[in-house]
Design brief:
Shape of chain A: elongated
Chains: A alpha+beta, B alpha/beta, C alpha/beta
Oligomer: heterotrimer
CATH superfamily of the largest domain in chain C: Thiamin diphosphate (ThDP)-binding fold, Pyr/PP domains
Number of helices of chain C: 13
Radius of gyration of chain A: 16 Å
Strand order of the largest sheet of chain C: 3-2-4-5-7-6-13
Distance between the termini of chain C: 50 Å
CATH class of chain A: Alpha Beta
Number of domains of chain C: 2
Largest sheet of chain A: 2 strands, antiparallel
Structural class of chain C: alpha/beta
């Protein structure tokens, strides 16, 4: 890679940094309880919960396991579990 | 109307888990849309989103220095105008860059009337450098430069009233918002970028690392600030408050107690005098903005 | 067209001819006549730029950075305290490789407060990554602006530049100036083509931070670009000479150096005085000559080594002081470095600080001191006061 003059970069490159490795707790989504309200999608600081799947689905490559989605889910459909690695 | 389903702030950024400012950045771009140029200040958001070459920004983004975003934005706006281009210019800067070191450039840009939107993500201290107090730090918050101690209850001064300062510059639209109320936040961003002239938005963005609470509670903390009256979501048009979010207020303890930065007010015993002063700040906010929902008789 | 013009107005005229999109400046003596004239041109529609009336120099250069990044040719002007206030932005503009051009009406740095001329201000910014050109007279003050934009915007360079001229001595005096026609300048200076630009259709991030894995390479690129600036300046200078008949082919200008024993090295308006003094010295049998540095950054090391090869002593006239340094002046050590191993004696002479007049007899006396191997000293001190 040659450095771009002026320390500038094109979009999309943050994705090289897979922040999922930071995770200690993992959110588990219960489709039985999920009402598809979209609150978890809207409030995820990582923008990593998919809106175009049947149910909201986190991208575990990037999910840091912060638990905001679980805390804010109005249907209590998300549980945080300690992740086995 | 912008398409608010667009994700213009990408995965892979290096913010702490449950970061309020990261959520703010994402929601701001949803409200502003694709046709936006972001001007950033040095600070947490700049650092966690742009280590070369791993940028998280999908819109044009520029960072120069800590304190000059409003001036850089002035130049960007002047150039776009000259070229007949239509991009909206949005500054996204922390509270230190806004309340303290950058106020000269902001004042100049607002007085000159550039068509920019200046958004402060307010996490109430210099978090990037390790949680030092700023002019946005609330009364009695313990930070690394305003530590609670034998002779100190933490930060000695209440928060500077930046929205009023910028409204006094003649800004046509000034508003406050919170990451805890995302629809309201996005709507205010959209309104600000579509209002000609310099507009100011101040977004409460709780910081789990700096304030001392679990990252999962970021949104909850934002809600508690509103529910206790210690943060008020309001809109000012041409200097007049036209709208403020009403609440059935809770005592300030409910907001203070879960945060490590206020823990000294409860240990070894509840500090009645200091907590009363903080309650008085909330009461004054409620009075000023008329936010209390009166119980039905 | 030849006209009698104030130096500042010649500079403003040059800027107008360069067709900047955005001008942003804050008033400071002795730069004011430039920006007043430009504001007037904008107000009268003679200059099609957006003039941002900023609240500080800090914002002046910051807004130029923003405008340049958004794709406009930009211009600012300042001096002294104003330039010092821009210090941080100067490094930033260069690191972001934005070709902003700024006029510096050279003035002393406080304290004590002084509005009068020396070159401490721009010289103190020598490491910021801007090229620095110094003018001898009003004509050169004007012409160097055309060259500066050509050099800065060349994609081999992409560095910002100062065009420096002595405050009051050049900014506030009237001289005959040959003003090139607009079509001539348009042919010499094509419209600005930005390299990195803010554009929603092709979004990029600019001004990211670099970890230790990358930072050194970015600085290396800047140093390489400064070497390129020297080449582009020579090329553009030759082209300018062909188009307009005035020769700015090199980073240096030689005056009566051929058989010189004592050579002066100087920058800016003092070169005029030195040339007159040399003529008088020559008439009296003293073989003196001058090497004028038109460019301080890039530093013309090879030119100095070539041009001064045969002299016995070199007197570097310094309108600055690097307090606490061995030779006292900032240029001296670099000239000495250029001549390393030749056995030529090189001395700095601190002159003209804070507007102190430098006269022909002072120049003659410095030639004598250099020949007598006395140097690295102040010249023209009122010794009765200290």
């Amino acid at each position: 890679m040659t450095l771009r003059i002026g320390c500038a970069a094109a979009p999309g490159q943050a994705r090289a940094n897979k922040t999922g490795s930071w995770r200690v707790f993992i959110p588990r989504f219960d489709h039985e309880k999920c009402t598809k309200c979209g609150m978890c999608i809207l409030l995820c600081p990582e923008a990593c919960i998919s809106a175009d799947t049947d149910f909201p689905e986190p991208d575990y490559d990037y999910c840091k396991g912060c638990g905001v989605c679980a805390d804010e889910c109005p249907a209590d459909a998300i549980e945080m579990e300690q992740e086995e690695k | 109307m912008v398409d608010k389903s667009l994700e213009l702030f990408d995965c892979g950024h290096r913010a702490c888990g449950g970061c309020g400012p990261a959520l703010a950045g994402r929601l701001i771009l949803k409200g502003a849309g694709e046709n936006t140029i972001v001007v950033a200040s040095t600070g947490c958001m700049e650092v966690f989103s742009t280590p070369y070459p791993e940028t998280a920004w999908k819109v044009p983004w520029i960072h120069s220095l800590f304190q000059n975003a409003a001036a850089v934005a002035s130049g960007v706006e002047a150039s776009l105008k000259k070229q007949g281009k239509s991009e909206k210019v949005v500054c996204i800067c922390g509270d230190g860059a806004t309340f303290d070191i950058g106020i000269l450039c902001i004042s100049g840009a607002f007085e000159r009337g550039h068509d920019i939107t200046y958004i402060c993500y307010d996490n109430e201290a210099y978090m990037n450098t390790g949680i030092q107090r700023s002019g946005a730090t609330p009364y009695d918050a313990s930070t690394t430069t305003s530590p609670a101690g034998k002779y100190s209850y933490g930060n000695k001064r209440p928060k500077k009233d930046m929205p009023a300062i910028l409204a006094a510059h003649g800004a046509p639209y000034v508003a406050t918002a919170s990451i805890a109320y995302p629809a309201d936040l996005m709507q205010k961003v959209e309104r600000a970028v579509n209002t000609p002239g310099p507009c100011y938005l101040q977004i409460h963005a709780p910081c789990s690392t700096g304030w001392g609470f679990e990252g999962s509670k970021t949104v909850e903390m934002g809600k508690l600030a509103i529910q206790t009256g210690l943060w008020v979501n309001y809109e000012m048009v041409d200097g007049t408050v036209v709208k403020a979010k009403k609440v059935a207020r809770k005592p300030v303890d409910e907001y203070l107690l879960p945060q490590k930065r206020f823990r000294h007010l409860f240990k070894p015993a509840r500090n009645e005098e200091e907590i009363a002063k903080i309650q008085a700040i909330a009461d004054a906010n409620a009075e000023r903005f008329g936010i209390d929902i009166k119980p039905k008789k | 067209m030849r006209q009698i013009m104030e130096g500042s107005h010649a500079v403003a005229e040059a800027v107008r001819l360069c067709r900047p999109g955005v001008i942003s400046a804050y008033p400071i003596t002795p730069q004011t006549h430039i920006v007043e004239r430009l504001a007037e041109m904008v107000a009268n529609g003679e200059c099609d730029a957006d003039y941002i009336t900023v609240e500080s120099e800090f914002s002046a250069l910051s807004s130029c950075l923003g405008a340049s990044a958004a794709g406009s040719r930009t211009y600012s002007a300042t001096t002294s305290q104003g330039l010092a206030f821009m210090f941080e932005v100067c490094f930033n503009v260069a690191g972001m490789r934005q070709p902003v051009i700024m006029s510096i009406a050279n003035r002393a740095m406080g304290a004590p407060l002084s509005i009068w001329n020396d070159q401490q201000d721009s010289i103190s910014l020598r490491d910021a990554g801007w090229f620095q050109l110094y003018a001898e007279d009003a004509q050169e003050s004007m012409d160097l602006h055309f060259l500066a934009y050509r050099i800065a915007e060349d994609h081999r360079v992409l560095l910002p530049g100062f065009v420096c001229f002595d405050g009051f001595i050049l900014s506030h005096t009237y001289e005959p100036v040959d003003v090139p026609p607009q079509d001539g300048i348009d042919a010499f200076l094509p419209p600005f083509k930005p390299f990195n630009v803010l554009d929603a259709k092709n979004p990029i991030s600019m001004g990211m931070y670099a970890t230790p894995d990358y930072y050194m390479e970015f600085r290396y690129q800047m140093d390489q670009a400064m070497d390129q600036a020297a080449k582009v300046m020579a090329e553009a200078g030759r082209e300018f000479s062909e188009r307009f008949g005035r020769d700015y082919g090199g980073l240096v200008e030689e005056y009566r150096l051929d058989d010189a024993d004592v050579a002066f090295v100087a920058m800016g308006s003092v070169c005029g005085t030195v040339k007159d003094a040399i003529d008088e010295m020559r008439a009296a049998g003293v073989k003196a000559g001058l090497l004028k540095l038109r460019s301080f950054r890039p530093f013309p090391k090879a030119d100095i080594r070539r041009a001064l090869a045969g002299v016995a002593a070199v007197a570097v006239l310094e309108k600055n002081i690097s307090i606490g340094s061995a030779m006292k002046g900032a240029a001296g050590p670099e000239v000495k470095d250029a001549l390393y191993g030749t056995g030529i004696n090189v001395y700095s002479y601190i002159i003209g600080l804070g507007g102190r007049d430098v006269r022909k007899k002072d120049i003659a006396a410095i030639a004598k001191a250099a020949a007598a191997q006395q140097g690295d000293m102040f010249y023209g001190l009122r010794t009765e006061l200290v």
